[in-house]
Model the fold of this input.
Amino acid sequence: MTTSRYASVYRPGLFAGQVAVVTGGGSGLGRCTAHELASLGAGVALVGRKPEKLEQVRGEIAQAGGVARGYVCDIREEEAVQSTVSAILKDFGRIDALVNNAGGQFAAPLEAISQKGWETVVRTNLTGGFLMARECYTQWMKRAAAAGNAGAIVNIIADMWQGMPTMGHSGAARAGMLNFTETAAFEWAPVRVNAVAPGWIASSGMDQYPPEMQERIRSLPRMAPLQRVGTESEVSAAICFLLSPGAAFISGSCIRVDGAVPNAKISRPIQNRTPSAEFNGFHLAAKPKVFR
Done:
């Protein structure tokens, strides 16, 4: 990209005057989404565990003309989440949107996952998201909704349909997050709660897996009906739509951003061999090393 700021498909100023919280905002999908929200006028609260990463993204957004602040927090710790949401409200005065993006897992067959490993992934991908959503709701969104300013929450899950072999801990947690989304959409209305399920996305996270998985990662495009992996911008676009006024009657739903991979089965050989055109509006996007 040659532009100096995010090239969003949405109109300028879409989120002007609003405040969005993005967990896992220091890298990958969180970084991309934070940039797009800021480019559309939102003040962005970046939440993550590594201050240097948060500061880098904050600086990038500032350089592009946006507003962001970083907040160091382990979302798995209840008191840390409570104090972080309180600090965001003190600094920004409101929370209109939460993008529950933080997550993580490691590759292992079920029989090799220890209780500690299982619980660590579930706490990161399920419990942490619940805590962030609950605190944003109880500390601000519930009261704001009563005053006619209902906010929105988007939970980032994963393509966990048909199971997640070698990542069963993450699949179980993400499935739980989808069910939490559906429950919260009912209990917390008129606050809207939805989910986005990314499939194989060309993000920095792909470079975190061990070398023995690299060849499989490079083979992924051949197993997708759209014959490619997705971009971070394509996930961010779905998130921004669900936070926008255009999604005002959408709650309790999940948007899959996966190139129809769950619809490909052994009994249905993929016929298409032409990659679909991709959208990439993120001016700082970099292709994962595994694909270079």
Remarks:
- The chain is about 40% helix and 15% strand.
- The helical segments are 28-39, 51-63, 78-92, 115-146, 168-187, 214-219, 232-243.
